Amino acid sequence: MLPNFTYVCASSEKEAIKHLASDGARIHAGGTDLLGCLRDHVFTARKIVSISKLDSLHGIRKTAEGGLRVGALATITEVARNPIIRDRYHVLAQAASEVASPQLRNQGTIGGNICQKPRCWYYRGEFHCLRKGGDQCFAAGGENQFHCIFGGDMCYIVHPSDTSPALLSLGASVQISGKRGSRTVLMEHFHIPPGQDVQKETILEPDEIVTAILLPPASPAMKSSYRKVRARQSWDFALAGTALAIQFSGATVEKARVVFSGVAPVPWRSKEVEKTITGKRLDANLAAKAAEAAVKGAEAMEKNAYKIPLLRGIVEEELIAIAKL
Fold this sequence. Notes:
- The structure is a single chain.
- The chain has helices spanning about 15-20, 35-40, 75-80, 85-90, 90-95, 100-105, 110-115, 120-125, 165-170, 270-275, 285-295, 305-325; strands at about 5-10, 25-30, 45-50, 60, 70, 175-180, 180-185, 210-215, 220-230, 240-250, 250-260, 270.
- The chain is α+β, with helices and mostly antiparallel strands.
- It is built from twelve helices and twelve strands.
- It has a five-stranded antiparallel beta sheet. The chain has a four-stranded antiparallel beta sheet with strand order 9-10-11-12, sandwiched between helices.
- It has one domain (about 1-325): Uridine Diphospho-n-acetylenolpyruvylglucosamine Reductase, domain 3, CATH 3.30.465.10.
- The longest helix has 17 residues, at about 305-325.
- The protein is globular and about 60 Å long.
């Protein structure tokens, strides 16, 4: 059963921010994660502040610098189908097309997707875990087959978003507005690991909202892709995945950004893989070496050791595939 709450449909960013500053306020965009969290008693709400009518948060358009501004309320379907994103930022279009089901892609927003709560069954269930203010992570000695192999520190969730790793691989930034003004942060600094704050997923303050995501100009020499492996082929979260954004000079890698999904509490950038392939000709032998580098430092839990060879295989196959594009 949902809690009782008041509902406000904000007519401006200023009004939305004002309402969000009140105690117990929660933001509503697409609502696909919010309603689930309220039903599962992950958190409660005294006031729901809808931002769905804010025109400034909608749309996808080119920037003066030659990049792209994606409004926070752009739906996942709009992102997946946008012709500029499909052509210049293929990794993002591919990742967006892998999100959930068609119905949820039509309703869910890009801003909501990067801010969504983790899907750990202890966090979503009737367990007073660390992330909900308790004193232990039940996954550490429990059912942890879907939990992390990197970045586990007190809490062993995995970040559920497909679009966040893609955006990180592209070097995207996030525009944020709040009562103290506006700021822009790199996607790399947007998510918070459990060791920094076990009860937060992002740097957002309670009165702040994501207004847009900024994509830098895309180099014609860049190739990108997203690969997601899941327990079911449709409508499921990643067991492991990788977002690649690689700039080539012929067959040689000039620059690379490699980010993993489904294996860490935040989108996990693999500088080990980037270092392994940068400045070298990308072929099958190098892809195999990079795949070994990809799992360096991985620490399996009792029931998720399968993620290590799974991730190794994904990275090797995707590097070989992107070299042939």
